[in-house]
Design a protein that fits this description.
- GO terms for molecular function: dipeptide transmembrane transporter activity.
- The structure is a single chain.
- The N and C termini lie close together (5 Å).
- The protein has 315 residues and is mainly α.
- Helix 5 runs antiparallel to helix 6, helix 7 packs across helix 11 and helix 12 runs antiparallel to helix 13.
- The protein has 14 helices and no strands.
- It has two domains: 62 residues, no CATH class; 225 residues, MetI-like (MetI-like fold, Orthogonal Bundle), CATH 1.10.3720.10.
Length: 315
């Protein structure tokens, strides 16, 4: 077990290192001069050279990467070109919106996807199964931004039940949560479609096994068979997809926040790219990548916890 954890930890760190190298290289080989973007095309060459020196853009690439990584480890991601404040302050200011949105989206995705998948498996071959599979196919086909617009038109414009966008802050938790209902629904309805299909397939596969037939023959209640025998043994594929869907939810917040005009990290990404705010884009991309890599690392650990056979092999 210790060897497994050590191997996974080293892989986790190596992946983060590779991501940081790729992101840094991509951001620094893009065409264009950040100094010209910040100061404008009418600026003098002396002013541009002074800004490049201030930002460290006149140093060799490897030196800039080493300094960037060292500062990032200490929580210093540089200063935003556009906002003229430390990037860490921008992240700290916007994270309290993006993190709950992603968490609510992931919770709703797992709850809805697993529930619908189990219902479809229990109703296999019947109208309930067909209806859930049809809805899940529609969910896979519909883009999140288009679904967001439809939700706004229905629940905000026509019915006037929920706000169409914006975020009032956490001073009033009720208003804050109401403003996140539609974005959460837009995230969850798309992501849960895939999870529902995987859950159904995994549950049906377990239902065909001998020990489930034996449990039925002994007269156990269907709910008990589902809770004690089917669902625990169907968890490995489900957990795999959940780990992959963390990436979908995290990247989905970027689109959703712009559709609903939410001042989170996703909207900050768009603003930073538009203004060629190099340090901010680097920090945000690495942050999103770190969240996804961490989720996959936790999924690897979860495999050992939910599958006793793996635990025995790694002991």
């Amino acid at each position: 077990m210790q060897v497994f954890l050590l191997r996974r930890s080293l892989g986790f760190l190596a992946t983060l290192f590779a991501v940081s190298v790729i992101v840094f290289l991509v951001m620094n080989v893009l065409p264009g001069d950040p100094a010209v973007t910040i100061l404008g095309i009418d600026s003098t060459e002396d002013a541009r050279a002074a800004l490049r020196a201030e930002l460290g853009l006149d140093r060799p690439l490897w030196q800039r990467y080493g300094a960037w990584v060292w500062d990032a480890v200490r929580g210093d991601f540089g200063t935003s070109y556009f906002f003229r404040v430390p990037v860490s302050e921008l992240i700290a200011e916007r994270l309290p919106l993006t993190l709950p949105l992603a968490a609510f989206g992931m919770l709703a995705t797992v709850t809805l996807g697993v529930t619908l998948g189990i219902i479809a498996a229990a109703q296999h071959g019947r109208p309930g199964d067909w209806a859930i599979m049809l809805l899940s196919q529609l969910g896979i086909a519909i883009p999140a931004f288009w679904l967001s617009i439809l939700l706004v038109l229905l629940f905000a414009v026509k019915l006037r039940w929920l706000p169409p966008g914006g975020f009032p802050g956490w001073d009033d938790p009720v208003l804050a949560l109401r403003s996140l209902i539609l974005p959460t629904a837009a995230l969850a309805l798309v992501q849960s479609a895939v999870l529902a299909r995987v859950t159904r397939s995994s549950a049906l596969e377990v239902m065909r096994l001998d020990f489930v037939r034996t449990a039925r023959a002994t007269g156990l209640a269907p709910r008990r068979i589902l809770g004690r025998h089917i669902l625990p043994n169907a968890l490995v594929p489900i957990v795999t997809i959940v780990g992959m869907q963390v990436a979908g939810v995290v990247t989905g917040t970027i689109v959703i926040e712009n559709v609903f005009y939410l001042p989170g990290l996703g909207r900050l990404v768009f603003q930073s790219i538009a203004n060629r705010d190099l340090f901010t884009v680097q920090a945000l991309v690495v942050l999103f990548a770190a969240i996804v890599v961490t989720a996959n690392f936790l999924v690897d650990i979860a495999y050992v916890l939910i599958d006793p056979r793996l635990k025995g092999r790694l002991a």
